[in-house]
């Protein structure tokens, strides 16, 4: 039986690394992203180095009216992963509605609308795996990124509910909570080395979690302890902190 994996947001470095790993378990990989022609080098490389069929799909996550037409041929996917995200600029988003809308739409609204489509298809087949890459930023609002964090909090809650809803239908949902990753999205930030992972390391951890059918996976495990502490700081202290 042909097994298909769909990567939504395949231009990211993590998606690229995941594609190479998934080639070991899947017969077909679909790379979906805006400006799909930019994915052709990855498509060609995968096709040459792995025994897997690779196709590219044009998908602009902000153009929700195009979702059905773009993804109709992919609704038979056995695995779908939301890899895309947009960190944005907190200071700008606090005063600029367009920036705030983009942060919320990319990280929550579009992700939910896309996954709802795959969830319906997987429920009807009683099989499949859905993976959503959320963020530790969604666990508690901080002044440095609370608009982004609130969108990720919503996405995390959505994935939790979806996991609960689909469990009885044989569909598994994995929530991935990365901390700091060394990617172009964070290149302008000064990140603490002990809490920062490479896209290659993140992809390996996600891949293993998919195979093991984990429910929630922090990237890396140190973030589980960090967020445990942050979640339990009393609010009267937390509101005075600069995080």
Summing up helix and strand content along with how strands pair, one would put the structural category as alpha/beta
What is the β-strand count?
9
CATH architecture: 3-Layer(aba) Sandwich
H/E topology pattern: EHEHEHEHHEHEEEHEHH
Q: Please, how many helices?
A: 9
Strand residue content: 15-25%
CATH topology: Rossmann fold
Low-confidence stretches: none
Mean pLDDT: 94
Outline the biggest β-sheet.
Answer: 7 strands, parallel
Q: How would you classify the quaternary structure? A: single chain
What is the gyration radius calculated from CA atoms? 18 Å
Q: What percentage of residues falls in helices of 4 or more residues?
A: 40-55%
Structural features, described:
The longest helix is centred in the middle third of the chain and has 29 residues, at 97-125. By secondary structure, the protein is an alpha/beta fold. It is globular, with a radius of gyration of 18 Å. The protein has a single domain (4-238), classed as Rossmann fold (3-Layer(aba) Sandwich). It contains nine helices and nine strands. The model has no long low-confidence stretch (mean pLDDT 94).
């Amino acid at each position: 039986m042909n097994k298909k994996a769909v990567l939504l947001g395949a231009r990211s470095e993590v998606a690229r690394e995941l594609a190479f790993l998934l080639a070991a378990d899947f017969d077909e990989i679909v790379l979906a992203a805006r400006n799909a022609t930019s994915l052709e080098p990855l498509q060609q490389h995968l096709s040459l180095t792995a025994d897997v069929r690779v196709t590219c799909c044009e998908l602009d996550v902000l153009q929700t009216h195009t979702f059905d037409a773009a993804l109709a041929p992919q609704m038979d996917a056995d695995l779908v992963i939301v890899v895309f995200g947009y960190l944005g600029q907190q200071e700008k988003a606090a005063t600029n509605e367009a920036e705030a809308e983009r942060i919320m739409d990319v990280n929550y609204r579009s992700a939910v609308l896309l996954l709802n489509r795959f969830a319906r298809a997987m429920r009807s087949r009683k099989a499949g795996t859905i993976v959503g890459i959320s963020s530790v930023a969604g666990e508690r609002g901080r002044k440095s990124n609370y608009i982004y964090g609130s969108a990720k909090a919503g996405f995390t809650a959505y994935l939790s509910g979806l996991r609960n809803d689909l469990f009885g239908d044989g569909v598994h949902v994995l929530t991935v909570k990365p901390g700091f990753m060394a990617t172009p999205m964070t290149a302008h930030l000064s990140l603490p080395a002990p809490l920062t992972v490479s896209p290659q390391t993140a992809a390996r951890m996600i891949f293993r979690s998919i195979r093991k059918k984990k429910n929630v996976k922090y990237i890396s495990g140190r973030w589980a302890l960090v967020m445990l502490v942050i979640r339990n700081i009393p609010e009267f202290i937390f509101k005075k902190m600069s995080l």
